[in-house]
Design a protein that fits this description.
Length: 270
């Protein structure tokens, strides 16, 4: 295990450079993907109109909605992954065996490709969001150094959780024909239960209790709440532990499902 970890760490810079080169090579497709994840800006416009017409909604006034949805934009851009589509394509087209002959686990390659694209996403999305946050919603964003550190840690946890879930859905392509249909179901639930469309604080109490024990919120809503002062230090620390527990559990399940799926894939001549 130690030797394998050292090998991964030695190979990491090369894997990240390759992933970044791929992101630049397919920059047109990448830009389209980025533009399709700007739904928070649409929701911001809708909620802003509602506040102007009827006043604050819950604790959310104009500035609170600006801070929330721009933070959601940042989190969404910095935690996204397209491994589910890559896996489905490579399984269906018979490209996957090319990855299997490489010296490292294919999921590590997929993870490196996903991480390597983060700087390019940041260059495109973050300056606009940070500028608007600084001019309109800065007073509604935490300035607590500990909370900012927890926000950064929660971003990594959200990325890992997102990647693991999508790797699971992609790996299901070794078992069933409609794993992308399952992803569509996941995406629908994520949009509602993560806080992506509507801040979870505006839902009834029983819904908030439910989503506390589901993974969706920890991919987006939880980091956003840390950044926008929706949590106390104690709450953030407790839920950070829960987020990482979800992430590690899903990562373990993804690796286990991969082993089972690979045996089936090879048995059928993959």
């Amino acid at each position: 295990m130690i030797a394998r970890t050292r090998a991964i760490l030695r190979a990491a810079p090369t894997l990240l450079r390759i992933g970044l080169a791929d992101a630049f090579a397919y920059r047109a497709e990448f830009l389209v993907w980025v533009l399709t994840t700007t739904l928070p800006l649409i929701m911001l416009a809708l909620w802003s109109a509602a506040v102007q017409a009827g006043g604050p909604i819950g604790r959310f006034g104009q500035g609170d909605f600006v801070a929330y949805y721009l933070a959601a934009l940042i989190v969404r851009q910095m935690t996204g992954s397209w491994v589910v589509w890559e896996l489905n394509m490579e399984i269906r087209q018979g490209i996957l065996p090319m990855r299997l002959v490489r010296p490292m686990h294919p999921l590590i390659y997929y993870a490196a490709e996903s991480l390597a694209a983060l700087p390019l996403r940041g260059v495109i999305a973050i300056p606009v969001a940070v500028l608007l946050l600084a001019t309109v919603g800065a007073g509604h964003v935490t300035h607590d150094p500990l909370m900012l550190v927890m926000f950064v840690v929660s971003l990594f946890g959200a990325w890992l959780l997102q990647f693991a879930v999508l790797a699971i859905l992609g790996t299901l392509g070794m078992f069933i024909e409609s794993s992308l249909a399952l992803f569509d179901v996941w995406l629908g639930l994520f949009s509602v239960l993560s806080g992506y469309l509507v801040p979870l604080e505006l839902f009834p109490q029983w819904v908030r209790t439910l989503v506390h024990w589901l993974p969706f919120r920890y991919i987006l809503g939880f980091p956003v709440e840390i950044l926008t002062r929706g949590l106390t230090r104690a709450q953030a620390l407790e839920q950070l532990g829960l987020q990482w527990a979800f992430a590690l559990l899903m990562a373990f399940f993804a690796a286990s499902l991969w082993r089972v799926g690979l045996r089936r894939y090879q048995a059928y001549g993959g």
